[in-house]
Amino acid sequence: MSEFCPVMWPEDPTPAEEKNCQNCGLYKHGSRMIWGEGNPDANVMIILDNPGARENRDGNEFVCGTRQTLQKAAHEVDLTMDDLYVTYILKRKPTRKYDKEATRQICMRHLNEQLAEMQPSLIFCMGNVSVQSFFEDKNADVKSLRGQWHDVRGVPTTVAYHPLAVRRRPNLWNYFLKDFQLVADRVK
């Protein structure tokens, strides 16, 4: 296996008609809209809660801790950028307090558009926020749902801990890797 080196995945451009969306109010936070990253034609759609930082204050791109952890696990199970597309419940990074429940409900419209257009073969939800939003169940949790396949909205779906949770709690790494292997086995 080749050595792992995190890379900046290409950003999927936000559709022109959505760039200036102000429905949820996150535009007031000053963060730009990130539609997704990776391969838009991939079989696997990874859903995270919201974009992390992609640029530093000077506007230079970098690979944040979430992407490093996600890419490392993908690398270890022989998945590549071509296999994966990453998107979010919220398309802008919140920078301060906001009405989480209402904002997530509003922003699900964007994700539903992506699902209809892209029609991924598999969904991989990471973290409780994305699981609860995608499963439309505010009581759903990663711990009880991980390690198995679920039919959600007609698409085979599995879940994993959020990459930042894995970074903060290294004891979750083996679970995270097993969940990636579950996806890799289904893709191959």
Structure notes:
The protein has 188 residues and is an alpha/beta fold. 34% of the residues lie in helices and 15% in strands. It has 6 helices and 7 strands; from the N terminus they run E-E-E-H-E-H-E-H-H-E-E-H-H. The chain has helices at 65-76, 100-118, 128-135, 142-145, 163-168, 173-187, and strands at 11-12, 36-38, 44-48, 84-88, 122-126, 150-152, 155-160. The chain has a 7-stranded mixed β-sheet, with helices on both faces. Strand 6 and strand 7 (155-160) form a beta hairpin. The radius of gyration is 16 Å and the shape is globular. The mean pLDDT is 92.
Shape: globular
Structural class: alpha/beta
SSE order: EEEHEHEHHEEHH
Strand content: 15-25%
Residue-averaged pLDDT, rounded? 92
State the distance separating the first and last CA atoms.
17 Å
Low-confidence stretches are none
Instruction: Give the strand order, joined by hyphens, for the main sheet.
Output: 1-2-4-3-5-7-6
Instruction: Round the Cα radius of gyration to an integer and report it.
Output: 16 Å
DSSP helix count? Answer: 6
Number of strands: 7
Major sheet: 7 strands, mixed
Q: Give the fraction of residues assigned to helices.
A: 25-40%
